[in-house]
Known about the structure:
Layout: H1 31-34, H2 39-53, H3 55-58, H4 67-86, H5 95-109, H6 117-141, H7 145-171, H8 192-200, H9 203-212, H10 215-235, H11 238-259, H12 261-274, H13 282-287, H14 299-316, H15 327-332, H16 344-352, H17 354-381, H18 385-404, H19 414-452
Helix pairs in contact: 2-4, 2-7, 4-6, 5-6, 5-17, 6-19, 7-8, 7-10, 8-10, 8-11, 9-10, 9-18, 11-12, 11-18, 14-16, 16-17, 17-18, 17-19, 18-19
Amino acid sequence: MRRLDFIERPASLSSPDNPDSEVISGPQRTGAEARESTFPFYALLFFTFVVYIAPQVYFPVLRPFRLAMVAALLASVSYLFNKLSTGQPLLKIDAETRLMLVLIFLAVLSIPFSRWPGGSFQVLKDEYIKSIIIFFLLAHVLTSVPRTRKMLWYIIYFCSFISCIGIKNFVDGNFYAGGRISGAAAPITSNPNDLALTLVLMIPFALSFYLTNKGWRKLYSGAYIIMSTFAIFCTFSRGGFIVLVVVYALFFYKMAKKTGPKAIFIAIVLTAVIIPLLPGGYTDRIHSIFDFSEDQTGSANAREASTLAALALVKESPLLGVGLGMNTLALNDRGFFWTQVHNVYLQIGVELGIPAMVIFITLLWKLIHNMQMIQRNLSQLEGDMEKVYLDQGMEISLIGFAVAAVFHPVAYHFYFYYLAGFAVALKRIYSFSIVQTEELTNFDEQAKWRETR
């Protein structure tokens, strides 16, 4: 069997001193792990609720409490207290965590050399630090498959609400100046492009849950798939459309490998059903992806010009960039007034330098590769399709983000850091599970060999 190349084999499957053993749930958990509190998980869930829903917008009385900051501090402090009180290490350092730490270091290093150091520090303090917290908390708090599924289910619930907001804005004619719907309340869904990105990244998980659940959960995941897909159409987001096509294409491709022509037939039928239901003018909007002259807003030409300018900026400052969050200021100097680079890879290259861009791409590739390797090993070793489909959803969502990154200026937003945190947690959980199964299998084989002697 092909072994996972990233497995860090634990010293003992049941040693209470082994920090990796916290991924084993139920009666196998011993020592410090058995005393681990669930409070950090629920604090992280509350943080996620604030990130996706922004209740302070709907209830202004909550605004003075700065819920996002309170939630981040609550989740972080509860996690630190729990680890210190149980004598567990605060961080698990693996290859992905090292890459993330290097990326964070380069972001901080860019601040003193920034075109506006104070502005870069503000981006770090107000935006990037929250994404960093999300990554590390997810990677360390999600220590079992049930806990990971629970977090994903809640995010799907939150995104269902966001889908309803998007559809309602479209039906009510709640458009802004560009003739497209307004976003939802939270900053990560405040414009139609970000709303579409938020929804599409959760569709792979909903597809996985639809395949592996029964009863009301199956119905709910199916309803979310339909509702979020229609909400994405309502946004008229070209980037959202491209990622949506990639997500569904990858899903049906993987299903075709398992079920054959049946999956392809279903994909063709669904496409034939969806096309007549598209909003009026949607096909013209999508066609402008290939013909910029049909883009009435002129955004496609503006983004092409700003991309060329961004490439020149990378050439000018290849090592440290122009400073965290300062691509808009740098483009101002080139005559592109108050615009920004709509490409995550270029955004990092312009602001943090080529080394940081290479680190980011390497991290993203490694996360995707890990998910692919885990699927192969789980299929061969355990045959647990529920885990395989969950990991498949993670892989497709990461690939979806890799494509979306070409069209969105979201290098420091929550999108990637949520996915990366989930992916690192799943790698740790499944890697240990695979090692455990292998060692138990070897033990059984040795026992049988002794019995035959």
